[in-house]
TrEMBL record:
GO molecular function: ATP binding; histidine-tRNA ligase activity
Principal place of residence: cytoplasm
One family name in Pfam for this protein: tRNA-synt_His
Presence of the UniProt keyword Cytoplasm in the record: yes
SUPFAM superfamilies for this protein: Class II aaRS ABD-related, Class II aaRS and biotin synthetases
Domain called Aminoacyl-transfer RNA synthetases class-II family profile: residue spans: 1-337
Entry's Gene Ontology cellular component terms: cytoplasm
EC top class, as a word: ligase
Compartments (UniProt record): Cytoplasm
Organism: Lyngbya aestuarii BL J
Encoding gene (name): hisS
Name recorded for this polypeptide: Histidine--tRNA ligase
Length: 432
């Protein structure tokens, strides 16, 4: 029989990897919570028109990457390719603007029909933030600082922040024309995609991956020179505030981002350790989007991180979070095994994490599994312990052993907990 396999471009996140995911999520949650960002969960599919209007038909995402299908009621549905459009739809539909500035975050799967490769999948995951209702450059800097905080807390290095301003609609209109004027004489030398974009979405040509196109755009006019006074002031303030926070960045006038609704600040956080799929976080201001989708004129800024790429980096660094297992219980013999089950339950009720070896195999084999489990201590119950209602506690890092009566173990929980904590912070026991 032919085995059914996962769909191309999707991956299972198996238990030996999922610890990274939980770690990233918990670090992000903690940092977002400290800045009072609130989580929002929107549906995974939406009406296709939301993305067509919200992302723009001339973008790659809408033009060729969307998972679009008709449902049984003949409605055109699309699996969300990114989070912002859905959040903004929800913001408008639920009138969240009434509550003043909204600081929101989300995480979950996104879907794009792309050629799968390392760090690029068809179902992938993003974590993102959106601040709606402020046009203050301080909001731009707040979201950038949160992104850098998260990456730093994960221990990631070799990251750089690229910064640009794409101005407002007026600035972009002028720049767009200048770019078309510059590129038109080279039209035949541009790659096919870029030729196609020349009239529809010329700014996107700046991030073409084609060598010859890149050579040509090297000397293209820079958007910075087309910013009006308001855009200039906003951008200066962003840079000044970033400097004040000690966040370093480089200006990259070619950073235009793929999506049409971006205005003013655009940024990316890029890793030097990821090969071709190097951008781990992309974001910027999108002052035009809420109104474009039928809401009140509302400035906004946000970013999204690609979690697969983050996890690849963490795996390269071997930055494993520590195992959270306190006890691994080894037992052999019928009475001992029954007592082990009860003891595990009582320890869990006392807020310890406990794994019970269920194999009934020789003690030697069970001890090996205890070592591999990442637990701090092993509890051993054999016939003799079962007879006497005792348990042997073995500290796995030092090999030191203590004998307890089972009831004493459960009354000395605080003392044991602090010993577990001390053992954990004293060294390098990592899970797997
Ligand atoms: P890229 O240039 O890599 O295609 P993008 O500009 O399409 O990126 P965004 O729409 O800004 O990406 O999404 C934000 C982040 O989501 C990216 O920086 C990346 O880390 C991640 N991401 C985007 N597409 C994918 C994908 N197909 N698979 C895995 N991660 C992705
Ligand atoms: Mg893309």
């Amino acid at each position: 029989m032919e085995l059914i396999q996962a769909i191309r471009g999707t991956r299972d996140i198996l238990p030996d990897e999922v610890g990274y995911w939980q770690w990233v999520e918990s670090i992000a949650r903690t940092i977002l919570c400290k800045a009072n960002y609130l989580e929002i969960r929107t549906p995974i599919f939406e009406q296709t028109s939301l993305f067509e209007r919200g992302i723009g038909e001339a973008t790659d995402v809408v033009g060729k990457e969307m998972y679009t299908f008709s449902d049984r009621g003949d409605r055109s549905i699309t699996l969300r390719p990114e989070g912002t459009a859905g959040v903004v739809r929800s913001y408008i539909e639920n009138k969240l603007h009434v509550g003043g500035v909204q600081r929101l975050w989300y995480t979950g799967p996104m879907f794009r029909y792309e050629r799968p490769q390392a760090g690029r999948q068809r179902q992938f995951h993003q974590l993102g933030v959106e601040v709606l209702g402020s046009n203050n450059p301080r909001a731009d800097v707040e979201v950038i600082a949160i992104a850098t905080d998260i990456l730093q807390a994960l221990g990631l290095k070799n990251l750089r922040l690229d910064l640009n301003s794409v101005g407002d609609l007026e600035d972009r209109g002028r720049y767009r024309q200048a770019l078309i004027d510059y590129l038109t004489p080279y039209k035949d030398e541009l790659d096919a995609d870029s030729q196609d974009r020349l009239s529809r979405n010329p700014l996107r040509i700046l991030d073409s991956k084609d060598r010859r196109t890149q050579e040509i755009t090297q000397n293209a006019p820079s958007i910075i020179d087309y910013l009006g006074e308001k855009s200039r002031t906003h951008f200066d303030k962003v840079q000044q505030l970033l400097a004040g926070l000690g966040i370093s960045y480089s200006l990259n006038p070619r950073l235009v981002r793929g999506l049409d609704y971006y205005t003013h600040t655009a940024f990316e956080i890029i890793s030097d350790d990821l090969g071709a799929q190097a951008t781990v976080c992309g974001g910027g201001r999108y002052d035009g989007l809420v109104q474009e989708l039928g809401g009140p004129d509302t400035p906004a800024i946000g970013w999204a991180m690609g979690l697969e790429r983050l996890i690849l980096l963490l795996q390269q660094l071997q930055n494993l979070p520590q195992s959270e297992l306190d006890f691994y219980i080894v037992s052999r013999g019928e009475l001992a095994e029954s007592q082990a089950t009860i003891l595990a339950q009582k320890l869990r009720n006392a807020e310890f994490s406990v794994e019970v070896d269920l194999s009934g195999s020789a003690f030697g084999k069970q001890f090996k599994r205890a070592d591999r489990s990442g637990a701090v201590a092993c509890l051993v119950l054999g016939d003799a312990e079962a007879e006497n209602q005792t348990v042997n506690l073995k500290w796995l890092k030092t090999g030191e052993q203590n004998q307890f009566s089972q009831s004493d173990l459960l009354t000395q929980t605080e003392e044991i907990r602090s010993k577990i904590q001390a053992s954990r912070s004293s060294g390098t026991t990592m899970s797997q």
